[in-house]
Amino acid sequence: MNLSEIDIHAALKKYFGFSQFKGLQEGVVKNILEGRNTFVIMPTGGGKSLCYQLPALMQDGTAIIVSPLIALMKNQVDAIRGVSAEMGIAHVLNSSLNKTEIKQVKKDIKDGITKLLYVAPESLTKDENVEFLRSIKLSFVAVDEAHCISEWGHDFRPEYRNLKAIVTRLGEGIPIIGLTATATPKVQEDIIKNLGIGDATVFKASFNRPNLFYEVRTKTENIDADIIRFIKQNEGKSGIVYCLSRKKVEELAQVLQVNGISAVPYHAGFDAKTRSKYQDMFLMEDVNVVVATIAFGMGIDKPDVRYVIHHDIPKSIESYYQETGRAGRDGGEGHCLAFYSYKDIEKLEKFMAGKPVAEQEIGNALLQEVVAYAETSMSRRKFMLHYFGEEFDEINGEGADMDDNTRNPKEKVEAMEDAVKLLKVVHGTSEKFKSKEIVNTLRGKNNALISSHKTNEKEFFGIGSDKDKSHWMALIRQMLVAGYLQKEIEQYGVLRFTDKGHEFLKKPHSFMMTKDHVYNAENDNAIVG
Ligand code: ADP
């Protein structure tokens, strides 16, 4: 399709009333109009829907939008219907429709009226639907919330795994558009592989939120008092306090109320009426604080949330990013304060104990990243963005001084010699070990795994015995973030070299490390990688 800039801008104005594209939207829209496979990674609120809606509206044929939730589909269909006089411009095709409704949907599609057809993956697998869709002109297939394809995402749905096969049945050369707000490289790799879009143009927006301040504090038995103090210091501002359990939500909301703070509880155990009452009270600013489980937040658009407190640490960095992302949407101040104790990590581990082994291993790997985030002394923003596969300049980057560690830096020490020792051990053990065994090897601590590899007989066994475990774990984390090592996620954290790591070992140079916080030194598990 050959469309000028003017056409695209005119269509943006005509259908959505916007005079400008947001972020990477324009490039995405053009790429889709050119009929190419496309992969869009943008944080929530980045404007992903328009990326496929606009080209669908501008093109001949119908675009299929695969979406995991009926509620999401309905919202989108209503919104799209608002941009046109024609009701049939967008439809949902699902099992809740009766025969007459299905007939109407099919008629509108055949008549070329329907530009966007929303389907759940389950409906798309039905033979009768496939047969029908094969017979019509399709512009492209967009897979929304594409992270549902990956077990490493937060919302794995096995039906998403069949999408590529179905699209192939629908016809030849239909462009596929994947969209997600999940930024981890592993999830992205799974999406590309499963949708078969290795040739896709990738549009990835930055996940940096420069106006958010990140802080982690040690969780003690005085946590309620700490939270009350923080809220009182921020009197009159809106904030969310996340807790893991419904019980804690109710308890803490009460404690806050007793202490003169206007707060409501929110969790999925309340009936719909109560939930919407409390939500409205928060949105309308009848109360300042909502104490909630993760049930609160999806689709809630309050731009001036000034702080997000985590009474309990979440189960992944991904969740932490999503939940803290609800602060400072208007670009103003947003303080993200997490309380951390290793005991909470153990609690989360226990929750996973009954699950299938693969799920547990994934869950644990994600949890160890949370531990590393909480215990690190480096820029938390840099750490988080590195987790999302994004480089961040901790000196000049936007929001560089917006975290506790950067504001109150720990002393740095020269660690070139130790870095060499570490890399030697990774090299000498043939890049087969996870952090824990690398540290045991450095410290000369034998165990069954180490002796089965005869690592205890190697000359480098114990070369780092002069330093403790927390020192070596900190160094590993910092060398990972600095890009000298990488973690093999597929193998749950095996450490490997990068090119930069090889260079370093050949020609060592200064490496300044910060000493990490150790919150729970008496707990030997506190610092596993
Ligand atoms: P995402 O799906 O990435 O979370 P949405 O598609 O819901 O984001 O868009 C987030 C918000 O941004 C919506 O309110 C939408 O109307 C608005 N928006 C999208 N594109 C533009 C634009 N070009 N100009 C102004 N607002 C936009």
UniProtKB/TrEMBL annotation:
<dbReference type="GO" id="GO:0006260">
    <property type="term" value="P:DNA replication"/>
</dbReference>
<comment type="similarity">
    <text>Belongs to the helicase family. RecQ subfamily.</text>
</comment>
<keyword id="KW-0233">DNA recombination</keyword>
<dbReference type="GO" id="GO:0003677">
    <property type="term" value="F:DNA binding"/>
</dbReference>
<feature type="domain" description="Helicase C-terminal">
    <location>
        <begin position="222"/>
        <end position="379"/>
    </location>
</feature>
<keyword id="KW-0413">Isomerase</keyword>
<keyword id="KW-0479">Metal-binding</keyword>
<dbReference type="GO" id="GO:0006281">
    <property type="term" value="P:DNA repair"/>
</dbReference>
<keyword id="KW-0067">ATP-binding</keyword>
<dbReference type="GO" id="GO:0005737">
    <property type="term" value="C:cytoplasm"/>
</dbReference>
<dbReference type="GO" id="GO:0043138">
    <property type="term" value="F:3'-5' DNA helicase activity"/>
</dbReference>
<dbReference type="GO" id="GO:0006310">
    <property type="term" value="P:DNA recombination"/>
</dbReference>
<dbReference type="GO" id="GO:0009378">
    <property type="term" value="F:four-way junction helicase activity"/>
</dbReference>
<keyword id="KW-0862">Zinc</keyword>
<dbReference type="GO" id="GO:0043590">
    <property type="term" value="C:bacterial nucleoid"/>
</dbReference>
<dbReference type="GO" id="GO:0046872">
    <property type="term" value="F:metal ion binding"/>
</dbReference>
<keyword id="KW-0347">Helicase</keyword>
<keyword id="KW-0238">DNA-binding</keyword>
<dbReference type="GO" id="GO:0016787">
    <property type="term" value="F:hydrolase activity"/>
</dbReference>
<dbReference type="GO" id="GO:0005524">
    <property type="term" value="F:ATP binding"/>
</dbReference>
<dbReference type="GO" id="GO:0030894">
    <property type="term" value="C:replisome"/>
</dbReference>
<keyword id="KW-0227">DNA damage</keyword>
<keyword id="KW-0378">Hydrolase</keyword>
<feature type="domain" description="Helicase ATP-binding">
    <location>
        <begin position="29"/>
        <end position="201"/>
    </location>
</feature>
<dbReference type="GO" id="GO:0009432">
    <property type="term" value="P:SOS response"/>
</dbReference>
<keyword id="KW-0547">Nucleotide-binding</keyword>
<protein>
    <recommendedName>
        <fullName>DNA helicase RecQ</fullName>
        <ecNumber>5.6.2.4</ecNumber>
    </recommendedName>
</protein>
<keyword id="KW-0234">DNA repair</keyword>
